[in-house]
Write a structure and sequence with these properties.
The chain is built from 3 helices and 28 strands. With 402 residues, the chain is mostly beta strands. A hairpin with a 5-residue loop joins strand 19 and strand 20.
Length: 402
Amino acid sequence: MSAALIIACQPSSPTSDVTAENSEAFDTKLLIRADSITMTPDHILSIKPTRYQPSLGLEGDIEPIKQVNLIAAQALTVEQVLVKKNQRVKKGAPLFTVRRQTAPMESIESSEQDDNEALTPLEVEGEVADNKSTATEPEPSAVNTAQAAPKDSTAKNSDNIKPNAEKNGEDDKENSASASSNDLDNNQASKHTETANNLITVRASFAGRIEKLYVKKGQKVAPRQPLLTLSDGTELHFIASLPIEAKSQISVGQTVNFTADGLIDKFTGQVSKLTVTGLPKQLLVYVNVVDNEVSRNQIKPGMKVTGRVDYGQIEVGTIVPKRALHNVDLTVLHKPPYKPLRPLSANVWIIKQNQRLTRQPVEVIEYDPLTKQYLIAGITNDSLICLANLPDESEGKKAVVS
């Protein structure tokens, strides 16, 4: 009799899934007893399996792949500024010249500093995926060393801006010191020499645009003060963060389809690198924008983008109306692309084969704006869904349909 009751309660056609949302039966009060709940057939929804492709949402800001922020590692005086903001420069072009200040600040030469530690007049901040540390070559005099340092694990990929010395004459060669500047692209150190008066010319190591210029001629610069930002806007990417559990579901080379705020077209990217952060432990996903005619004319640095990457095999879910879902905010699904970055956790009341009610945890995968229904995962097809908004104490009670 129990099996016959469940079969008899199943809706006669799929259209009842939609009409049930506005059915007058929901205005009928449920009869709740100590061990049972009496409801109408319109409160019951049969499982309607639907196949879907699992995917992960990715969100980030468009950034140049090559970008460096040049900062002062010690007190300097700007002798010349050879570029302007927004100016495009070629690789090797001189950017500016600086001179060490004759009386270094206290923060530069601390009494606690090791005598063998090299002081650095310049530093390059920028993200380098394959560089965990910098390679510098200490000088016997503990001065005149240019150091390139990665910004952090979440910053932008970059090449190094290489300081190059100006030579005032052959007689100064014996008094000059050599230093190494780490090339953030290939880890190869390039040598430079400095004259006795500590004059340094800084040159661009890649072609790009002067995005930010913080200094002017004659300016005295304190340690850690930014000097200049150089970026190459022809190669772009964005960086998204995922829970560390997603590491097994994504790999380098996967295709990412994404959209940009304010644009109608869809664009394509490719996963170029995966990095695990410390605290909090997350997976950083680097997505390079595929350079084509569509993206080249529209995608610019600073844009916010949202994309998805497919993973795994086709799975089976269930279509339900909003009334079936409890303990969840569905607002985020009501705008394109109608999918959350991560599945939303919700609860659904189901009736098992023994006619007992159970509150089942599910994941909300997608919203269909045409049918106004939701795709969920986590329910087997040997149960029925109860659309009634039941109190928590309904767990385990018998469902009676009349």
